[in-house]
Amino acid sequence: MGCRRIVVTGLPPIGCLPIQLTAKFKNPLDRRCLEDQNADAQSYNYKLQKLLPQIQKILPGSLILHANIYDPLFDMINNPQKYGKLHKSIDKIMNLNCIKHQ
C-alpha cells in the first residue's frame, strides 16, 4: 500500500519573501527581490525536477509530479496588475504616512 501519487513543490522565490526584504533593506522604498537568493531557489528547483524521475523509477507504480510554484509567484510579485486591481501601492502608503507625520 502507501502513497503512489505524489506532488512535490519546488521553492518559491525566497529572495522576494517579506522577511528577507525586511532583514536586508531598512527603507521600504529600497526593497527589491534578492537575486542571489532567487538564483539559489531556481538552482534547487532545477535539481529537484531532474531528480524526481529517478525516484519514480525506483518506486514502481508511482507517479511523482513537480509543481512549479516559483514562476507564477515571481510573476505575481513583479506584475501584480495582471492579477487584479491594486488598491494602494507602497509609494502611496509611504506618502500618506509621511504627510501625516509632518
UniProtKB/TrEMBL annotation:
Pfam families, alphabetized: Lipase_GDSL
Gene3D superfamilies: SGNH hydrolase
Lineage: superkingdom: Eukaryota
A GO molecular function held by the record: hydrolase activity, acting on ester bonds
Annotated InterPro entries: GDSL, GDSL_lipolytic_enzyme, SGNH_hydro_sf
Entries under PANTHER family matching the protein: GDSL ESTERASE/LIPASE EXL3, SGNH HYDROLASE-TYPE ESTERASE DOMAIN-CONTAINING PROTEIN
Protein family according to the UniProt entry: Belongs to the 'GDSL' lipolytic enzyme family.
Protein name, as recorded: GDSL esterase/lipase
Organism: Tripterygium wilfordii
